[in-house]
Structure formats: structure tokens, C-alpha cells
Task: structure prediction
Amino acid sequence: VLVRKIDAVETLGCVSVFCSDKTGTLTKGEMTVQDFVVCPGSAAAISKQGLTVVHREAKGDFPKEAAESCQAVALCGILNNGAELKKDVDGSDLWTGSPTEVAILRASSEVQGGPKQAKVLREKPEHHKIFEIPFNSENKWMLTIHGQHPGGKVFAILKGAPDRVLNFCAVDPVAKTKIEEQMQVLMNDARRVLAIARRDITAPPPKFEGTCPSDCNFPLRDFEFVGLYGIEDPPK
Result:
């Protein structure tokens, strides 16, 4: 065994229990959205009505009767997403992108009526993506802006680590507590949790610029909380 840093051996010598799972042995090896957490009508109602949790059923689908309540979180998940659906050489569907982005795009497409409908939604003129701040380890979120501009109303979608996203949302303390409690429930079920929010920009700048909150030339505040995604690599 070749060791580059001796302190790594010292650290390993202090380990008493080492647990490991080879991905794909106990699990499917495929990240999957198992839960949508959505607002009961609007974010303003969270304080009084709480949140609605929609779980994927045992057969693998989301309940059809819950599709309407998931429309907003699914649409945002389709538009604010770096994954794509392409055709493989044999004609089968080929999802490309990071595992997390693919999981959100696939689940959101299911709720919206399938991959073809998701493509239609992405290609609508009012959903055209005109600016993006990709995810990075410092921000821990990604942002996209959609619309037709010049000078007309556009809207921004923000997706990422829940604590970071909530910092940009206009939620009262009671609503924030309810959201954080639901996040903890999901995490206790071994879910990776991402939050998503949106806001309208009625007076956009001629050209969008910026990479972080301190240098953006558009408002990065008062977002409306849309929902949460509970993601896991499910067992076989």
C-alpha cells in the first residue's frame, strides 16, 4: 500500500468501525425523488395550513389525485434544471446530467404528463431561459431567469440547499419553522433535501449580470417558497 500523506494513516488508525456499501448492491444506484413537499395554495398559507407532502407510491408513481398540487414545484423543477432527455442509439430515453438534476427532471416530468410535455413546457416562449447562475459549492444554489424580456416581466427560479434558499424567501417565522420541521422529517428518512423558490422581476435590467448575492444587478430577495424535493437512492 502506498500512502501519500502519513497523517492519513494516523487518522485511519483511530477508526474503530468502518461501514461501506457499494452503490448498486443494496440500492438501485439511481437517485430518485421520493417526495414533493408543496404549499397549500400559496406560500402565505403555510403558517395556518402547514405543508402538503406527496410521496411516491410503492408501485413507483406519484398519486394522480395529487398531480394538481405538485404543478408549481414540478414546473420549476423542469425549468431550473441542467439535465436533459435525449435519445440513445437504440431509440431509448437517455437522461444526461448530474444524478440529482436528472432525478428532479424525471419526477417533475412524471407529474407534468411525461417527458414530451416537459419539453413542450421548456420550449414555451414565456419559459425561455435568458440567464443562469450555475450551482457552485460557495453559493450552494443555482438560479435561472425566464421570459422574453426586453423590458417585459420575467421570473427567476432559485433551487438549492434549503437553508440558503430560505434566506432569500419572504416567509414569516411560523412558516419558516414549519418548513424546517418538514425538512428534518425528510432527512430523518435519509432523504437529500433541496428547496426551490421563485419570484417575478417586473423591471429587469437591460442585461442580467452577477454570480452571487453581492454582485447581481437584479433583486435577489423576497422569493416565494415553492416546495421541497426529497431525494434518495432507493433500495432494490
Q: What stands out?
A: The beta strands are 32-38, 52-55, 84-87, 93-96, 129-133, 141-146, 154-160, 192-201, 224-232. The first strand starts at residue 32 and ends at 38. The chain has a mean pLDDT of 90. The longest helix spans residues 173-188.
